[in-house]
Amino acid sequence: MPADRVAAEFAAASVHHRHVEADGVRVFYREAGPADAPLVLLLHGFPSSSHMFRGLIPLLAQHYRVIAPDLPGFGFTEVPAARGYVYTFEALARTVDAFTAALGLHRYALYVFDYGAPTGYRLALAHPERVSAIVSQNGNAYLDGLGDAWEPIRRYWAEPSAAHREGLREILSLAGTRWQYEHGAPDASLIAPEAYVLDTLLMQRPGNAEIQLDLFLDYASNLALYPAFQQYFRTTQVPLLAIWGRYDPFFVPAGAEAYRRDNRNAVVELLDTGHFALETHAAQIAARIRAVLGAAIV
C-alpha cells in the first residue's frame, strides 16, 4: 500500500476527544474521520458511554465522519449542579438535539444501542429529514423485544416504592455490570475488563446511582412512545440495519425481527453474542454497516 494512503487512513482513524457546551451541559464526545464525509452519530446505552465504541470508531472512520457523545449521567459529560438537570429520556434527547445544533450536524445516520435507541428515536421524530439511515444494535422499539431481565424494573414501574428502588441497586454493582458484558458472549476472554470497570467507577460518583435509578423508572416513558417510533418507521421506510446479539437477556431477538413489521427496508441479522455485541463483533458489525447501508448513509 502506498505510504501516502497509509498516512491518510491513519489520520482518518485517529480519534479526537472533545467537549462542547450544549443545553447547559459540557458534553464529552469522540470524533474521527474526514470532516466532509457522511456522518454517523453513535448513541451509547446503559451502563456505558462512548467508550463502548472504541473499537468501532476507527473502522467506520475510514469511510465516515463519526461522532459519539456521552449522554448526561454517563462517561465524561459534565452536568453542573446549578443546571438542575432532571434525568429523563426526554431530557437526554433534548440535550443530544442541542449537541447536534452546537456542532452544526444537519444530516446523519444514527447508530443506537440500548438507551441510545429511545434517545435517538426521539431525535428522529423531531427531525426525520436529518436521518439518512439507522443501525439498531440491540436498540429496542417494540414490546416484543423486552426480555425477562426487565422483570425487576417492571415491578418498579408498577409500584415505585423505596423497596423496589433499593432492589435495583445490585444492577449498578461491578458484578452486575460485568454480567451484562459477559452474559451470552462466545468467549469471555474477548471482553476487555476495563470496559465494565470504567462503567462501574463512573456510576460510583456521588449522586450517580440515584441518576441511574431515576432513569430505570423513566424508561417506562419509552414504551409509551413505541407506537410513535413504529409509525416513524412505517412513514419514512428509513434504511435500517437491526444487528443484534441474540443472547441479550434484556433486548431479545424478537425485538430485532419486529422492525420488519413496519419497515420493508429493514435488514435483520443476529450475532452469536450478548448485549454488548461490539465487544466481540466490532469488525463484523462495521463490515455489515458498509455492505447494507453504505449507499444510504449520505
Could you please describe the fold and organization of this structure?
- The protein starts with a helix and ends in a 5-residue tail after the last helix.
- It is globular and about 60 Å long.
- The chain has an eight-stranded mixed β-sheet with strand order 1-2-4-3-5-6-7-8, with helices on both faces.
- Helix 2 links the parallel strand 3 and strand 4 (65-69).
- 43% of the residues are buried.
- The protein is an alpha/beta fold and 298 residues long.
- It is 43% helix and 16% strand.
- It has one domain: Rossmann fold (3-Layer(aba) Sandwich), CATH 3.40.50.1820.
- Helix 4 (116-126) crosses helix 10 (220-236).
Characteristics of this structure?
single chain; 298 residues; Rossmann fold; 16% strand
Which SSEs are present, and which pair or pack?
Layout: H1 3-13, E1 16-22, E2 25-32, E3 39-43, H2 56-60, E4 65-69, H3 89-103, E5 108-112, H4 116-126, E6 131-136, H5 151-158, H6 162-166, H7 174-182, H8 193-203, H9 208-218, H10 220-236, E7 240-245, H11 253-257, H12 259-262, E8 266-271, H13 278-293
Parallel strand pairs: 3-4, 3-5, 5-6, 6-7, 7-8
Antiparallel strand pairs: 1-2, 2-4
